[in-house]
């Protein structure tokens, strides 16, 4: 046998051994994500969900390595004109997915030495400073991991037209002046639009230009994303419209304009967003361009904060989770004006999934059902993960109690949301697991009972969804944390419970309305009997003013406080009505005392009744003042 034959045979043997392994490895990922297999999986699934949940249009894009392996639109981008969704042409809003690309921009500037994750952010701010919580500075690391301790921002986050948009710097200055930080930075996760909005403003501070300009030059252009923009694109002929289904028909949702664009304003063509996913999965590179170094990509994807050592936690602009098979998953979601989006990355297979719709689901989000269906095609997902073994624990009883959720800011407008939407979670023990009953933050909106199995110290895992909760206590009441969600405390004393505060607000409010109705009925009766009409008097005026305020608050104030905020006539005029009622109460006290001095024989019960009503007026005004419902705030 000559040398050439020997070499040929050796090559064939080498290829059969090592080439076969490589082929098997490739098949394990590539064969699972073929156009045909994805089509067969997704088309019937989406057809059923979109019909059941009345979702007009959806785009799904799947990337593998450095290419798009699946891209398809379902339904309509414009119902009226019957324009179909085209993932290569239709522009969609992606909401908080913007936060991920904002984090990438921050990482770029860290590479350039212009920003540092661990520096006090006040070193970068020139026009205003962030108040400190007990002298603890805030860092970019904390802003990007939602652990900066900022108060919840819900007021005037967006405008209804471009001309009413507030520049990010002006918005943040007003927000921080009225709503300083509420907890020590780095200690607790609390999802924060204001935090990432502040991080994006730092980009403007250190570059000297607008966020849009930086993003376009440093990210959108290198990634070949010409459609991507943080500016309003309502008039773009390729822009999809969003809808809600009410009373048997689709109603278009108005476009909003964010004051913190870096937290959720991005619009983009789905196929172009896929370029960003490929960069995240290919060490920062897309084709010939590198937006980030490999070390920065690793930093974004690494666990930067976790609420419990046994859960994956968050990176920078990415949430870390483990699939049932144990595979690491990186994801982020976004919701804005009816648009609903999700990005999920599986680093091991360099697999990227992007789903975006122009309406939201009523139950389990469409985006989650789609990503779940795709990852189930992976080889590891075909294997059954080891079942979670539950063991009796004598310590389970310590978690059995009532926990109260009251979401809302601690300062500024909307403080009353902490009790207006308050609700309880009842925790019970079966000896081997915990039963938790309540309206879950990420649930369907109705009351549910879920079973959680021990998974670590104070850590429990939902036996169905795999979601974690964590019970913990440190020098105070017990807390229940929904991992990558919210932290709530055990039920407060009776006088501080949301139900008690709501009862005070509604009960006294109904009393004012009842007194107003009685006063009007008396006046109407005297008019019908052709008797000399009496004026409403101080009591009638007090009740009428409170009644008008409460009806206005119910019909307008509670719905408008979020997002767009109040016009000046409401914030400074209408919201001052209770002060007018208190002024009338002072006049009532003075008049009652004067009448008593001039006529000591006056009926004491009537006199004490007027004093009591005046006292109730003062107390109710203070109640409204304390909860920041008036033009002047307590906090």
TrEMBL record:
Domain of life: Bacteria
Pfam family, one: Beta-lactamase
Keywords from the named record: Membrane, Signal, Transmembrane, Transmembrane helix
Residue span, Beta-lactamase-related domain: 46-365
Gene3D superfamilies per record: DD-peptidase/beta-lactamase superfamily
Signal peptide: 1-23
Ranges in a coiled coil: none
TM segment ranges: 502-525, 537-556, 568-590, 611-629
PANTHER family: BETA-LACTAMASE-RELATED DOMAIN-CONTAINING PROTEIN, D-ALANYL-D-ALANINE-CARBOXYPEPTIDASE/ENDOPEPTIDASE AMPH
UniProt protein name: Beta-lactamase-related domain-containing protein
Biological source species: Paenibacillus helianthi
Upper taxonomic lineage: Bacteria, Bacillati, Bacillota, Bacilli, Bacillales
